[in-house]
Predict the structure of F-box domain-containing protein.
Amino acid sequence: MALARTCSQIKSEYLEFIYHKYTLYFDCSCELNKRLKGNSTLRASLRSIKVHWTGPVSDKAFSRLAKCKELRHLDIAISKSTTNFETPREKEMRRYFHSMKPARLADALGIEELLSIRGLTSVCVSHVNGRQSTKRTDEERANLQGLLIFKLRVPELD
């Protein structure tokens, strides 16, 4: 990283290389949103990312991520906290339908924005590290991965 401190031109080229070559990990959607919002080099060069889908701005973070034209690999880490924050629609429905059931991944904040991402060559859904949060079921992980592969990946040519 000392190389990035030499001058602005080298810093820009070095960071572009790093963002293009390595997978970046974000502990939450809030951190991802903050970094994408304030770093044009990251937005222009981001190629591979792993993010824990949690936080009150997941929708904004995934909207910004959808605008990253170089993005090719996405790894979404899910946990019980993925559904802690309600979508506006879910808040409205809970006013009339008082269900004590936990929210589904299909109703999680950011699902619509996540499904708007296109052009990926690989998509993966994993469980979050057990020390960070409580895991979701393997069935939920597999179902979300199937959905994301179907919606987000570029179709392979035979």
Remarks:
- The first helix runs from residue 8 to 21.
- Residues 30-36+44-157 form one domain.
- The chain is about 40% helix and 15% strand.
- The CA atoms of residues 94 and 100 lie 10 Å apart.
